[in-house]
Design brief:
It is a single chain. The chain has 7 helices and no strands. It is mainly alpha-helical. The chain has one domain. Helix 3 packs across helix 6. The longest helix has 13 residues. The radius of gyration is 21 Å and the shape is globular.
């Protein structure tokens, strides 16, 4: 009799389901993107560094995302932010730079970098 039973077809769910400590951060990502919160970093900060895979300002965004996700030191970015792709995708990135590359960018930054383009206009 068991052979005559019809097997129920299972619907495949195309949505990715995951348990995450970062679910709330992923949930507010659209609001942060809509409000252009990170645009001030891209517009005002100027770090003279060659872009290989990421702009220097993208690396600063990774630092901010790391802080928001609980990283206490730059090294934590490799084990928290860099490995958690759903969080990166929520903010429009497919992957994250290595912490050593991010640290090089932070080392290259100066007070003048933080003041960026706006201070150069005032300096004449």
């Amino acid at each position: 009799m068991a052979k005559n039973k019809k097997q129920k077809s299972r619907k495949s769910n195309k949505k990715i389901k995951t348990n995450s400590a970062y679910a709330s951060l992923c949930a507010i990502a659209p609001v942060i993107k809509d409000k252009n919160v990170f645009d001030v970093i891209h517009q005002k900060v100027e770090i003279h560094q060659k872009k290989v895979e990421y702009k220097p300002t993208d690396k600063l965004v990774f630092v901010v995302l790391g802080i928001m996700s609980g990283c206490e030191v730059v090294f934590d970015l490799n084990r928290k932010l860099r490995v958690y792709r759903p969080l990166l995708r929520a903010f429009g990135y497919s992957k994250c730079a290595d912490q050593s590359v991010i640290q090089d960018t932070l080392n290259a930054a100066t007070e003048r970098s933080a003041n960026g383009r706006s201070s150069e206009k005032h300096m004449g």
